[in-house]
Every structure is written in structure tokens, then in C-alpha cells.
Amino acid sequence: MTPIIGIDVGGSSVKGAPVDLTTGELLAPALRIPTPEPSTPDAVATVVAEIIRAFDGETGNTPVGLAVPAPVQDGTIPCIANLHTSWTGLLADLFFTRTLGRPVTLVNDADAAGLAEARLGAARDSSGLVLVTTLGTGIGSAVIYRGMLIPNTELGHLELAGHDAEKRAAASIKVAEGLSYEQWATERLQPYYRHVEMLLAPDLLVICGTVARDWDEFGPLLRRLSRSHTLISTHAGFSDALDHRRVADGRKPRREATTCDPTTLPAGRSPRHLGTDPARRRGRGPTHRTQDKGMPATTVRRALEDMRKRMPPARASLRQVVDVIASSPVAIDGSSEDT
Description:
By secondary structure, the protein is α/β, with parallel strands linked by helices. The protein is built from 11 helices and 13 strands.
């Protein structure tokens, strides 16, 4: 398979390298260039082009996968937090395809990390609800349910104690404010993860970002957030983000995330994220899905669109999005052309 060039545009640096999509491994050491100031689309495109030229001999005119610290909707950037405001409203896939002269596919950077973890990394054996967070200049998030990405969640911008969460708990804030690992973990990260867990109750939490290399410095300071999921950290520097698997506290997880698959549950039990039908709430006993009949991904998207029409955005929580998906037996096997 011809490698593609993967490029990560961050608030502090732009990194890139040729990537083997089968294994997730880099085929050459990543090239890192400081993010230009101001970080306008034109300035960033110049840096991206420089990285591409550095690998021309190995990749030729291969497509480019571009991860950006912003939501991506049909190739458009609707808003931006950690780059220049001129990105807002940019038809970014078209802009970079024309500027670079080759096919470019854009994705939110945390969503890219989440998909990598789900397919090749720490979450590849999980069939439950997975939350991947990236700790860097900001806080990125990816929510994956039974292998399907729920894109553009932006949980780093949750309000926490009257502040934008990433302005209090991102790895860059630890450095900027001179916080010790203990202060950062107990006063900033712990309240953030407790709040996120209250909203989603994930079965598996994956913590990524270059700071994950220092997990031994702050990981043991984070208390287990509940009995219902396993806390896992991966080394997520660009050069080794995909395939390192490590239980956060050095012990075996108390249970495998795959036990959240409803087809493996004993009769009478149901994981929290799958919900129950009204009969259970009325005391008539649990419902238990015993067979996954499969449903195309377009049906899931239609369900989400229907929910958005029926419920004001301010009231639509991620938990409700997950419940919509859980209400139907969705097949996530990659076999559908529209998946």
C-alpha cells in the first residue's frame, strides 16, 4: 500500500511523516516545525507544504491526511480556538487541496487520535463507549461507541467552575502557570474528568498527548473515577501515538471493556450506556438484546439528525446522543459502503 502523509497542525507545532495505514506506523522520523505566528491558513499551508516536500522522495504525490485543532464539518472549519480566527468558516479541504496540489482530507485532531486508538491502539478491543482525550495546547476529545466515531465533540470547551475547561486543565496551562504535577492532577484534571464521566459514564477512558510520556508523574494522583470503566494511558507523541498499550496505574484492568457488549452479558444485566426500556423502570425486569441484526451507518446519522430537530441544541447532551445510537442494533463492521 502506498503510504500517505499524516500531518498534525497544533497550537505550538506542525508535525508530519509518511504513515503506513495498515499498521499505523510512521515510515520515517516525524518532522516538526513551530506553528507560525500568526497562524493564518496561508501561513500554516506554507509549513505543511515544507513538510510534504521533505518526504517527496518516499511518497511522491500521495494524498495528505490533515488533523486540525477544530471541528470539521464537510471540510469546513465552523469555529477555531487555538489557531488564528481567520480559519473560521474556511472551506479548508478545498483550500488545502488547491494550495498543495494534491488530495487533502481534514479531520479534527482528537477525532484522528480517537480513531487511531480504536483501530490500532489502546481501545482496539473495546466494544463499549470509549472516551479519548488529548492533553496539549488545549484538550481534545473523541467519543467512540461500538467502533463508530461521534465527531466534533469538543469536550475541552465544557464550562468548569466558570471557566472553559481547557483554559484550566490543558497541559499547556500546567506549563504556563508553573503548576506541579500534583497541583495539575488533583486541582485541574481530576475535576475535569469527574465532570466528563458524570456526563458520559464511559467504559474506557484513554488519555493521550505528549504529556502522557510523564504518566508516572501524575497518573497515580488521579483517583479511579468509577467502578464502571478502566483508565488507560497511551504514549501519544506523534512518533509513537498508535500502538502503545498501558494500563494507567500499572495493574490489570478490573474488567475488560468488551464485557459491555450486550451479547456477552448474563441475563438480567445491562450496561449503563445501553439504557433500559420503560418496562425495567416500572420494575418489570430488564430488557436484554440478544442479537445484533445490523443497521447501516446512514440510519444512525438520520437518527441523530432527527434528535437535533426535536430537541433544542442547548438541551441535547452527548449522553442523549449515545442513547439514540444505543436504541438501535447498529452494525459497525466496516462492510457498509456508507460507513
